[in-house]
Give the backbone structure.
Amino acid sequence: MDKKFKRTLVTCALPYANGPVHIGHLAGVYVPADIYVRYLRMKGEDVLYVCGSDEHGVPITIKARQQGCSPQDIVDKYHKIIKDSFSGLGINFDIYGRTTSQTHAKNASEFFKKLYDDGKFITKESEQYYDPEAKTFLADRYIVGTCPKCGAEGAYGDQCEKCGSTLSPDELINPKSKLSGAEPIKKKTTHWYLPLQDYEQWLREWILDGHKEWRSNVYGQVKSWLDGGLQPRAVTRDLDWGVPVPVEGAEGKVLYVWFDAPIGYISNTIELLPNDWEKWWKSEDTKLVHFIGKDNIVFHCIVFPSMLKAYGGYVLPDNVPANEFLNLEGDKISTSRNWAVWAHEYLHDFPGKEDVLRYVLTANAPETKDNDFSWKDFQQRNNSELVAIFGNFVNRAVVLTHKYFGGCVPPCASLFDIDKDVLAQIPQLKASMEKNIENYKFREALKDAMSIARLGNKYISDTEPWKVAKTDLERAGTILNISVQICADLAIAFEPFTPFAAERLRRMLDVCLCTGMDHKKDREGAALHTVPYGEDAGKCPGSDKCVCLSWDILGKPQIIPAGHKLGAAELLFSKVEDDQIDAQMARLDKIRKDREEAAKAEAAKVVTPQKEECTFDDFGKMDIRTATVLEAERVPKTDKLLKLTIDTGMDKRVIVSGIAEYYSPEDMVGKQICILANLKPRIIKGIESKGMILMARQNDGKMRFVTPAESLVNGAEIG
């Protein structure tokens, strides 16, 4: 039996404030969360919508050093960019806080101190890398060197971004501190750890037994971690940027960002509702839902619940509907490679098309597997679906009502079978939408909403009221009455998905929307298009004069009464033109080309790592000599092989070499080369080859001869 809740607390993963948000973040977390919140509010439910910037951690300090500013400067900059991007897309939280706030510092410290006092941590001494010149411990990202796998310079202590290999600082060749350039040393340090293994059995019972309804990707990842056995996880680290560890002997240590950040949900709630926050976090009748991305599943399903369990008294998440990753034009979105569509740039490049992005990201939502965003699909969905179906239907319904009935909704007379059929389908689609949204299947719910638009578009096309009006105005009035009711249905159904268009549609219909209340302290950045219930309901123009939409009336007949005066018709959606798409594709092409050029330039610097040592005796076994090419010809039925007749000073012999793609036979005749003379002969394409030509492979892949700088006698020994 489903548990009944009095309120719903929705949290969104705190975006990291060292860069803007992109479409991958939006598709994975923020758009689906906003859909869910809008839906619940339209049903009149009590919802608290919490998010904020994650502003601590090593990457922020690295960026600050790179840009010659303070970490605070970095987070101030990106906090504003991120917050404005969300608001620009209609994603307006009850609070969008920050982990650098005083409220958070106090709350996070208190949280740590209670666990510390209750003996929930263990301490471990370990050796970690230390910069003797900068006099500070180094995070893995602060250590760089040569990659042991591919030889690339500038590999980090945790990863080589050239070959993608996961590394440890111990594996780097010639490791250096990014701070001073000094060679790091190992130094002992003590940290506190949360013993996750102590919560393993409880987690199994709570999630694996108690939440089998969770998405398979979430459930499967949790099971994999639990089956692999949990280990203690450090909750502190040596760093000068973050919440100081509030115990004696912890100077120079801060709370680890993974421990610090999720507490930010609680801190932001306290900041917004200092006297009322506990009912949202500690009442059993509160439903907690975490919207996160795939990379945060472990933290929100294992680590954070273990922290809350250790503290005691907190509610645990009822669901964690994590999405998979979104790719861009078939390639993984990467902030470091600038391979992304940034939210703030989109808002600049496509003004007035906030909803189009929301729609496309929902239609392509990576709910159960990775999915792809392409600009051509973006254009097609806008032009063929939003414009040609949704917008076309609304425009025809409103314009024709103005044309034949002066903008007043005509009365509904006798219903034909076609009328009854279309009206009967809408409650069914509503029920499907509800089921899908409540099960976090937003892509399917969007299909249901668009099916209402398709119904309306087909209905008005099939009934042709512009023709019927010439002979039967009453019948045309009935058709347009039903069409206007479907428009009202769409104004409700699309509010969670395309709130800006829904608002324009309500303006055309001259109606308002009841969406429940939010919990903001002021109206700045308030949830779009909200007409509150309760004590603020009087701000609505008045129930006797105003048609007020809500989720409950979706699919009901005669939502808008006959005689109601419609507003002016306006464009619901506009086409996305080819030149707009071409500009975006050109930008991506430039990024791709710049990346390729940078990769080539980087490859040119790479030297293959030295092979393992050999002795002088090993080298002495090789008889390397000078020789001159006398004759050269291609080996038949091959593309790469040349047959070379050479004078070694000792004899004339044949060597077969795979150099035809670099040199023609004509190029070879008369060339002095170096050979390994005592290589055991072998048969190649029926030809006995005695020796091997010495060549060097360039970074561009081309092979070049190792040849004497001046002419030498054939047979001269090299050694």
Remarks:
- Residues 646 and 653 are 6 Å apart (CA to CA).
